[in-house]
Request: fold
Amino acid sequence: MSAGFSRTDGLLRCDGVALGELAERFGTPLYVYSAASVEAAYRAYDAAFAAVPHRICYALKANSNGALLRRLAAWGAGADIVSGGELAAALRAGFPAERIVFSGVGKTDAELQAGLDAGIGEFNAESEEEIRRLSALARRAGRVAHVTLRVNPDIDPRSHPYISTGLRENKFGVDLALAPELLRRARALPGIEVAGVQCHIGSQMTDLEPVAAAARAVAALSRELLAEGFALRSIDLGGGLGIDYTGEGAPDPRALAARVLPALEGLPRKLLLMLEPGRSLVAAAGTLLARVLYVKENRGKRFVILDAGMNDLLRPSLYEAFHRIEPVVERGRPRAEVDVVGPVCETGDFFARSREMEAVEPGDLVAVRDTGAYGFSMASNYNLRPRPAEVLVEAGVARLARRRETLADLLAAEVDG
Ligand SMILES: *Cc1c(COP(=O)(O)O)cnc(C)c1O
Reply:
């Protein structure tokens, strides 16, 4: 049996554990993760790129639960971080500092300083100004910062516009054509070592041609810089591999490797290939469990109202993202077309619209599948709703990985003004 979620005897399970039991034990809404599923996804990446020196830097923003982070760190992953908070979480989880790469278009001085103090492996710089600031801070601290420059190759990832990052009109990276000039200036700065070039053109990419094109562009630039005498040590192709939210196919790092590795031919064998996958490591490993509160009809339309809302899982509202939704217990009831919605006071608070699924009744449990990435990490307290608990299932044992927030948590930061 493959790792993760599967159905036996009509019951949806996570690595053998019935989801109904978890709902009883931990309440709903509840995020449930399969450790084995994350491990299988990580190992698949590691194996796919075994032919070259490589590092798989997990992008924490997909899911920064410490239980998952500790395991990824132990398996040998690096970390791709985008804030001081994620830096602290990565260090706490045991990622060695030299395996941490700091990405992000708006790092503050305090965040740059924290990265320097920790001695992280690379800063993915997104502008010349950022490199100048980093140089000043590094010089003052008597440190050397290794910089990879994020370039924008102006390639359309053919994904959702909100998660396209490698187009000229996006805020990310620097123009590919200007990179050599910029790096010549950067290399002269005190406290700066130019370590390589990076790109990350988007997320939920299922078409690998744009990824291959970006790899070719970054490889060409790296060759040019090496020929000029830059002592590059890495090439970073970012993350962004999509998953199949319809559940029909699996993410395939092997297919990615088959498109990416040929683009690197001719580069020195010792150059470290860095990848920054987030979604493709954890999305399929997670399910959001929710209970049906009400089923109601409005002018011939049937609404299934869950105890989970857009504050718990934002992707359908933000990107009109598709997630499979299934009753946890299949009872063989007739199928019907429904809108599956949350309790939040927004029309945009939906998980699925005009979806055909087996009829459910109040009290039933439903599973919103493939929510291990950009699920809890994008959750909020909108409508003053506490964020859900998170449970990790490992070797048939379920453990609380983050307790449910309480109303006291929500109010704790308020001061009497
Ligand atoms: C978000 C992000 C990633 C991870 O993207 P996924 O689509 O989750 O794989 C990697 N690198 C950078 C710089 C990012 O911003």
